[in-house]
Amino acid sequence: RALLWEAGGGGRAAGGDIRLGSAPRLALEPLGGKREALEALGGKREALEALGGKREALEALGGKREALEALGGKREARACARLRAAVRVPTVSREGPGAADEVALLRFGRLLREEFPAVFESELVTHDLVANFSHLLTVRGADGGRTPYMLTAHLDVVPAPDYGWDVPPFSGEIHQGYIYGRGTIDDKHSLMAILEALELLLQRGFVPQRTFYIGIGHDEEIGGDKGARNIAKVLESRGVKLDFLLDEGMVILDGVVPGLQIPVAVVGVSEKGSLMLRLRVRTETGHSSMPAKESCIGILSAAITRLESNPLPQQFGSGPERALFEYLSPQFNFPMRVVTSNLWLFGPIFSWVLGQKPTTNALIRTTTAVTEFHAGVKPNVVAPLAEATVNYRIHPAQSVSEVLRLTEEIIADDRVELEVLSSMEPLPISPFDESATGYWTISKSITDTFPDIVSAPGLCIANTDTRHYQKLTSALYRFTPVWNKLEDIPRYHGVNERISLQNYKQTIHFYFNLMQNADQEEPLIKHFHTEDL
Ligand SMILES: CCCCCCCC/C=C\CCCCCCCC(=O)N[C@@H](Cc1c[nH]c2ccccc12)C(=O)O
Ligand SMILES: [Zn+2]
Ligand SMILES: [Zn+2]
Questions:
Q1: Cα 349 versus chain centre, distance
Q2: Which atom of ligand 1 lies closest to the CA of 458?
Q3: Ligand 1 within 6 A of 265 CB?
Q4: 16 has pLDDT over 80
Q5: Could you tell me the distance, in angstroms and rounded to a whole number, from the CA of residue 492 to the centre of ligand 1?
Q6: Do residues 418 and 404 make contact, with C-beta atoms less than 8 angstroms apart?
Q7: Is the backbone peptide bond immediately before 254 cis, with ω within 30 degrees of 0?
Q8: Are 285 and 389 within 8 A, CB to CB?
Q9: ipTM of model
Q10: Quick one: pLDDT at residue 75?
Q11: pLDDT of 171-221, one tens digit each?
Q12: Is any ligand 1 atom within 6 A of the Cβ of residue 248?
């Protein structure tokens, strides 16, 4: 069937080729494959209509030939279309009971089955649906004697109100060489890239030596208690032990680490703990013409001010952040190289420097974030109740109970009640020494994909599903190869979340390399190379 693509609207012609108004060749050449490319754009006529016309479509591609070259060919164009389709399914997780969009979750499951036929129809692959919406894939290896490993990702996303976005957050639009939308870096890029890599390898006749699992949770953004927790239980009930597990987490940082001249891929070998604390003050209510000296709002505000002006003590040197800077030391510019190679001497001053910016401050201490404040009922009523939420992310050198004790000391006011909403201790440090095969498999796959960057172990400052898998392995790693400049960091859970076409292609290559590297005993040799893709 042919498509008619006229300026100002689409329509289907009775026969013939794709028609593109006044400049057909110009548009078709960069598309490099007519129908396939248009299909790759995500659904023929609908996609073109969504793109809104010839000029808009080309603009959406962000520079015609350049954008398609960035995609690198039909295969990449299809992969890109699949990620865009994934973004268009609004698998939003919200706090509270019954808040999951079950229709979207089911639709997403169907999308995976339809888009990755080689995976879902392979005799090597078993698919388990877990807790209705999560997925566990078992890819059976030829050598049953080798310890399996696991890749994990999540299919849910945080909410994305339209406000502030350059394009609608669930449109998956391409703009100037980037795919925009909620989930493009957290975490649909990783989930789709894992399946793209497996699909490609299976199409090429790849039979893994060792079994591996792919776990896809559906509620990571609200703690993973249904998805990842039950995937882990299924594996535990089967007696599975893992060599290592790789989940989302840390990323490639370019220009984020002060003084570092080259980009660094930080592999999270530990993860901060978390404490969600409700602060509550109750006072007598009544007519606002006769207020008491202090209101619950004033008392709670003062407590919060004390918490914010007394950050918890820095812990530099007692967690994995030290290893990060020691690994990276040769790559720093002159004064920083001296500092980072003599941390025994410069540790305190370096720690002070790190404490000046939110991104690096998060590495060295338990952070205190006041995230909610509610109080008052009416302008002329003395408020009976003021409540706030504080979210601590706990440095591995501290514990939940220590943070609670310090909070009480800092607030020093019995009128402020504390209620623990949820808590989790920091996760242990996973091995990254020479014998840590998981760490080195990930590290080698980073180097294979990005020859010009360094990788280093570090601390994951946010939380992931990995804690649910602790009974299966003590080698838990957190990394996806998303390339971040400093200005990109607020895109996580923020507006204009996006991934470049080039970076998405690299993400697929990373997992493609990893699935082969994971099979190798020393030396690591691959059969299929990304140049063949
Ligand atoms: C020199 C290094 C500088 C460091 C710079 C750091 C830059 C970090 C860049 C990106 C961070 C990306 C984080 C991605 C993983 C995010 C996972 C996530 O969003 N988790 C949520 C939800 C969550 C999951 N489990 C729990 C448990 C307890 C609380 C919340 C959650 C989150 O962490 O809030
Ligand atoms: Zn995530
Ligand atoms: Zn997230």
A1: 32
A2: 2
A3: no
A4: no
A5: 9
A6: yes
A7: no
A8: no
A9: 0.95
A10: 87
A11: 999 999 999 999 999 999 999 999 999 999 999 999 999 999 999 999 999
A12: yes
What one-character DSSP code corresponds to residue 148?
A: P
Say yes or no: CB of residue 251 within 6 Å of ligand 1: yes
Whether 346 is in the pocket of ligand 1, judged by its Cβ within 6 Å, is: no
Residue 229: pLDDT over 50? yes
d(CA 422, CA 429) in angstroms, rounded, equals 22
Which numbered ligand comes closest to the C-alpha of 340? 1
Question: Residue 149 carries which side chain, given as an amino acid letter?
Answer: Y
- Yes or no: say if 263 and 458 are a contact pair by the CB < 8 Å rule: no
- Residue 510's identity, in one-letter code, is F
| 530 pLDDT tier (thresholds 50, 70, 90) | low
Query: What is residue 18's predicted lDDT score, i.e. its pLDDT?
Result: 26
Average pLDDT, integer, range 250-274: 94
Question: Which residues make up the environment of ion ligand 3, defined by Cβ < 5 Å?
Answer: 186
pTM, 2 dp? 0.85
Closest ligand to Cα 327:
1
Collapse the DSSP code of 446 into the 3-class scheme (helix H, G, I; strand E, B; otherwise coil) and give the result.
Answer: helix
Distance CA 338, CA 89 (A): 50
Instruction: State the pLDDT at residue 96.
Output: 75
Q: Look-up: residue for tokens 């918490």? A: 307
pLDDT of residue 22 exceeding 70, the answer is no
Query: What is the token pair recorded at 132?
Result: 């209705």
Tokens of 451: 């020859």
Tell me how far the alpha carbon of residue 531 lies from the centroid of ligand 1, in angstroms: 33
Average pLDDT for the chain: 87
Instruction: Give SS3 for 88.
Output: helix
**What is the CA(332)–ligand 1 centre distance, in A?**
26
Residue whose token pair is 């300026």: 7
* Contacts of 493 by beta carbon, 8 Å cutoff, 6+ apart: 158, 186
> How many A from CA of 221 to the centre of ligand 1?
10
Helix axes 74-88, 188-203, angle to 10 degrees: 140
Tell which atom from ligand 1 comes closest to the C-alpha of 221: 22
HEC string of 209-239 equals CCCEEEEEECCHHHCCCCHHHHHHHHHHHCC
- For residue 394, the CA-to-ligand 1 centroid distance in Å is 12
Please give the pLDDT value at position 63.
44
Q: Which atom of ligand 1 is nearest to the CA of 359?
A: 5
Number of helices followed by number of strands (H, E) in the chain: 18, 19
Return the SS3 of 81: helix
Catalytic residue among 115, 156, 199, 465: 156
Closest listed residue to residue 267, CA positions, set 244, 299, 233, 294: 244
Asked if 80 and 40 count as a contact pair (C-beta separation under 8 A), the reply is yes
Among 507, 493, 497, smallest CA distance to 172 is for 497
Does 156 participate in catalysis according to the annotation? yes
Q: Which of 454, 455, 445, 450 is nearest to 518 (CA)?
A: 445
The number of the ligand nearest the C-alpha atom of 256 reads 1
